[in-house]
Amino acid sequence: MSRASCVVAVLCLAAAAPVQSADQGPELWDRPRSAQAILAHPQLREAVAQLQAKPAARLRLAHGTRAETQAQAEELRAWLIALAVEPSRLMLRADAAVAGVRLEWVD
After folding, report:
1. Domain range for 34
2. pLDDT value of position 78
3. What pLDDT does residue 8 have?
4. Who contacts 48 (Cβ-Cβ below 8 Å, separation ≥6)?
5. Within the chain, which residues score under 70 in pLDDT?
6. Could you tell me the CATH number of the domain that includes residue 33?
7. DSSP secondary structure string for all residues of 7-60
8. Measured distance CA(75)–CA(61) in Å, rounded
């Protein structure tokens, strides 16, 4: 079994109730990120598990209009791709009503 498959299997087992949208607080951004740190974040672990369990699901990373929040959303997208999420299932969207980065499920 590949490393990505192992990660996906662990994430699928750890999934809780589906998230419709979730804001990512400053605790994600105030320390260095690694795959381990991303997987330790409950909302992100759940999001990856949901994407793996539902092949048609897509996730939008809504972010504020400041350059900092756009960079955070782009970095988070890159981490999700590194954790075996298909790039075509992730979208970025600037939204002035969002202060940071928010995960939003798309039908």
Report:
1. 3-106
2. 92
3. 35
4. 8, 11, 39, 80, 83, 84, 85
5. 1-32, 107
6. 3.30.1330
7. HHHHHHHH--SPPSEEEE-GGGTSS---HHHHHHSHHHHHHHHHHHH-TT-EEE
8. 11
Q: What pTM, to 2 d.p., does this model score?
A: 0.71
Tokens 């949208």 belong to residue: 21
Number of domains in the chain: 1
Distance linking the first and last C-alpha atoms of the chain: 31
- Per-residue burial over 50-83, b if 16 or more Cβ lie within 10 Å, else e, is bbbeeeeeebbbbbbeeeebbebbebbbebbeeb
Q: What is the rounded distance in angstroms from the CA atom of residue 11 to the CA atom of residue 6?
A: 9
- What is the model's pLDDT at position 7? 34
Q: How many angstroms separate the Cα of 52 from the Cα of each of 28, 32, 59, 65, 69?
A: 22, 26, 12, 29, 26
